[in-house]
């Protein structure tokens, strides 16, 4: 049972208990009214039980107590005198409504509402009938002349107040239009801030107009209508209702401004805003002026029962009107909500809006039904409760929408840094644009949860203030704030350190192009920093939310020890990799030979190296298999070339041509800057089978020895050709043999050219008359021909 429902019953029981304990005084009062059969007064200090027994034995005293209890029960609010269920009353027990089944409670509530409405209609019909027939108590107290005069005076006040209000609204239109134009086309603030400021200014103007109209109506009612200098109760009823209702309508105009696009808080079209503004204004005006003006006047002039019946009729009409509007716009509003859901960026928001589009009319019907029932069964406190709960709900929703829109307009759009900062930190913009949308989703989720909690608190389903004041609520909010601060600080540290590393690696900033060692070590440090930041931040967050991280740390140590024993190869990879990095054995971009693989080191981690060989194949070599690292990119490189000349050539002339080729190479724009020293001629390194080999060494910048060597080989060939120095190449000599006298028979060489046989003759046989040549040569000529095949190249040869 709620405290509100418990208070009247608590008062009844306290009054009954007081009456029972105060039996001597009650008995004395009863005896003074009727002295027959009165018992003697109880002695001072006598037990109260004896006095209570004497009281109950006396019929008149017992009847007086019964009448007192009935009078107290009749003074309770409607609907509270039947707290006990019929089943509980029949059983003779005091059973609270919570112990009664829900269907039974609903049945009792429905029965009570229908009974009350029926009784009000019957009483109202009786009063109206008495007025027209001239019989009854109401007709005798009804003064028609006073009623007509009061109605005329009240009508004058109503007409004058509304006329003044409309004139002031007309005069305020330019101000509204100017503020709306600034909201749409102004500059200097974000659009949502301009909208909020403009709506606030327009609301102040609107409230001032309502206040001026209220003051003017009071002046007219006081000095121009009725008795001068006195404000009648009837005019005061209307003017107070006018102030409250028009202020409420002004709040609605802040949400559904149909004439001014820049003064509308809700993101809907002008047509939709005009429709819902008119509908809400009619509903508010009908219910407000009906309950706050018409019902009190009818109560005063015609009777309380008729006024109560009029209030019930007004609520029924308002309920039917609201239900008809909701059902009429059910499909149309569903389409509008689905269109908004299609543009939502968060999946949760999109799904929630789609579900709300299908069920919004059910929530609206339930809301109006609840207001209708509460107004009927608890007219004293239900309507203010519903009014303030509705206002609180609207305020929470609007503030949530504005906060979400403000975040979207300020940090939701893509962040663009300046050109100078983008040049210095090319990855910072990308990181920010990847972090900000996720942070925006988290903030929107927090706003949604806060709005839901405020709405539940407004309708009494959740005590937000009590929850926050409790230890659990304060602890949860504190933990959430601490976690948010930890994440923000960690993210800021990571952005700062990562940007610093990026600044060091950027060749356009800092000290210029970083060395290969600096690139490798900074890249490894960045990866290690990311792992460390994630681990430390995770541990701190878990500790902050109340999870004991001691077992986690101990478990991680045991797991690391187990991995160390079970993965010795991995540990060897890591240890060897650490020493390779410390000794600067190789860096990214170096040409190395590692584990029998030669190529360019493209990626270096703490465990392995990725090498791309000359054919484009990518190799991953773990450091545990590396015994030797051959680095071709340290300080300088050497092109070592050996050039063979024929035995009949002059060695000095050949060396001279080699020097001339080196001078040509040094003077070239493509390779000249790569040469670090003069040509080194090592001399003759070998007297080979068919050549004399001369070795030279060219010192170049690291990694350029291969390109310089290729260019130098080209120039050497060109110089040797120009000087007529022969570069030996393999020869083949054919010997045909000699007879005993020492003479050699001639070589019978026949060369012929023929066409392919396609008419069925034997393949390889010449056709008749198509022999091209049949030459006979001496042996010397044959030898020379064979030794120099370039001199004679027949299509087909036969020896």
Automatic annotation (TrEMBL):
Keywords: Cell membrane, Membrane, Signal, Transmembrane, Transmembrane helix. Residues 529-568 form the Mechanosensitive ion channel transmembrane helices 2/3 domain. It is a multi-pass membrane protein. The keyword Nucleotide-binding does not apply. Residues 1-27 form the signal peptide. Residues 643-727 form the Mechanosensitive ion channel MscS C-terminal domain. GO terms for molecular function: mechanosensitive monoatomic ion channel activity. The chain crosses the membrane at residues 147-171, 192-215, 235-256, 279-302, 308-327, 355-377, 383-407, 446-468, 480-501, 521-543, 549-567. Residues 570-633 form the Mechanosensitive ion channel MscS domain. One of its GO terms (cellular component) is plasma membrane. Residues 389-467 form the Moderate conductance mechanosensitive channel YbiO-like transmembrane helix domain. Residues 788-799 have a biased composition (Basic and acidic residues). It holds the Pfam family MS_channel_1st. Residues 759-799 are annotated as: Disordered. It is found in: Cell membrane. PANTHER family: MODERATE CONDUCTANCE MECHANOSENSITIVE CHANNEL YBIO (PTHR30460:SF0). Belongs to the MscS (TC 1.A.23) family. NCBIfam families: PRK11465.1. This is Mechanosensitive channel protein. It comes from Vreelandella nanhaiensis. The lineage of its organism: Bacteria, Pseudomonadati, Pseudomonadota, Gammaproteobacteria, Oceanospirillales.
């Amino acid at each position: 049972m709620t405290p509100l429902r418990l208070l009247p019953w608590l008062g009844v029981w306290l009054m009954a208990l007081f009456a029972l304990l105060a039996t001597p005084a009650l008995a004395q009062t009863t005896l003074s009214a009727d002295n027959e059969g009165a018992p003697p007064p109880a002695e001072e200090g006598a037990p109260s039980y004896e006095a209570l027994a004497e009281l109950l034995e006396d019929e008149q005293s017992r009847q007086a107590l019964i009448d007192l209890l009935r009078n107290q029960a009749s003074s309770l609010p409607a609907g509270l005198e039947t707290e006990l269920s019929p089943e509980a009353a029949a059983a003779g027990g005091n059973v609270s409504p919570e112990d009664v089944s829900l269907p039974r409670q609903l049945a009792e509530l429905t029965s009570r509402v229908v009974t009350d409405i029926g009784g009000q209609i019957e009483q109202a019909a009786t009063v109206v009938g008495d007025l027209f027939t001239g019989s009854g108590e109401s007709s005798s107290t009804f003064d028609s002349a006073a009623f007509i005069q009061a109605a005329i005076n009240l009508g004058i006040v109503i007409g004058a107040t509304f006329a003044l209000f409309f004139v002031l609204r007309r005069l305020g239109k330019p101000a509204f239009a100017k503020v709306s134009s600034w909201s749409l086309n102004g500059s200097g603030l974000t659009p949502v801030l301009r909208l909020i400021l403009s709506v606030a200014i327009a609301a102040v103007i609107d409230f001032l107009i309502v206040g001026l109209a209220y003051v003017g109506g009071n002046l007219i009612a006081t000095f121009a209508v009725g008795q001068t200098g006195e404000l009648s109760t009837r005019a005061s009823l209307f003017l107070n209702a006018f102030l409250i209702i028009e202020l409420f309508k002004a709040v609605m105009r802040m949400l559904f401004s149909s004439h001014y696009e820049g003064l509308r808080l809700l993101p809907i079209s002008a047509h939709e805003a005009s429709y819902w503004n008119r509908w809400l204004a009619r509903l508010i005006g009908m219910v407000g002026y009906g309950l706050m003006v018409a019902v009190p006047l009818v109560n005063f002039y015609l009777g309380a029962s008729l006024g109560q019946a009029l209030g019930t009729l007004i609520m029924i009409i308002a309920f039917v009107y609201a239900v008809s509007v909701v059902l009429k716009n059910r499909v149309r509003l569903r389409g509008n909500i689905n269109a908004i859901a299609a543009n939502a960026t968060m999946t949760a928001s999109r799904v929630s809006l789609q579900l709300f589009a299908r069920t919004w009319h059910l929530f609206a019907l339930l809301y109006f039904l609840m207001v209708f029932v509460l107004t009927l069964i608890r007219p004293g406190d239900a309507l203010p409760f519903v009014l303030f709960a509705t206002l609180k709900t609207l305020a929470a929703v609007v503030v949530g929408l504005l906060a979400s829109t403000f975040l979207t307009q300020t940090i939701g759009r893509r962040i663009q840094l300046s050109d100078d900062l983008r040049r210095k930190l090319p990855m910072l913009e990308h990181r920010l644009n990847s972090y900000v949308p996720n942070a925006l989703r988290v903030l929107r989720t927090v706003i949604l949860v806060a709005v839901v909690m405020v709405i539940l608190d407004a309708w009494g389903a959740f005590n937000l203030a009590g929850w926050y004041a409790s230890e659990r609520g304060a602890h949860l909010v504190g933990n959430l704030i601490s976690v948010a601060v930890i994440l923000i600080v960690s993210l800021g540290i990571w952005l700062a350190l990562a940007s610093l590393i990026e600044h060091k690696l950027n060749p356009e900033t800092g000290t210029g192009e970083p060395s290969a060692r600096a690139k490798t070590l900074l890249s490894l440090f960045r990866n290690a920093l990311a792992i460390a930041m994630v681990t430390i931040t995770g541990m701190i967050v878990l500790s902050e939310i109340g999870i004991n991280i001691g077992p986690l740390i101990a478990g991680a140590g045991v797991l690391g020890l187990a991995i160390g024993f079970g993965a010795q190869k991995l540990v060897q990879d890591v240890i060897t990799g650490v020493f390779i990095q410390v000794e600067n054995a190789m860096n990214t971009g170096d040409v190395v030979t590692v584990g029998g693989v030669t190529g360019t080191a493209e990626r270096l981690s703490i465990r392995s190296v990725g090498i791309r060989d000359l054919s484009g194949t990518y190799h991953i070599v773990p450091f545990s298999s590396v015994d030797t690292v051959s680095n071709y990119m340290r300080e300088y490189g050497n092109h070592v070339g050996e050039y063979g000349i024929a035995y009949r050539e002059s060695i000095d002339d050949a060396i001279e041509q080699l020097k001339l080729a080196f001078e040509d190479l040094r003077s070239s724009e493509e390779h000249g800057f790569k040469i670090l020293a003069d040509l080194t001629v090592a001399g003759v390194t070998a007297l080979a089978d068919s050549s004399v080999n001369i070795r030279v060494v060219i010192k170049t910048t690291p990694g350029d020895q291969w390109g310089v060597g290729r260019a130098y080989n080209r120039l050497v060939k060109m110089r040797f050709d120009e000087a007529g120095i022969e570069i030996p190449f393999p020869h083949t000599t054919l010997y045909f043999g000699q007879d005993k006298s020492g003479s050699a028979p001639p070589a019978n060489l026949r060369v012929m050219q023929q066409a392919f046989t396609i008419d069925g003759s034997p393949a390889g046989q010449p056709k008749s008359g198509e022999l091209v040549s049949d030459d006979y040569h001496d042996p010397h000529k044959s030898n020379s021909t064979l030794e120099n095949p370039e001199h004679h190249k027949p299509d087909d040869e036969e020896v």
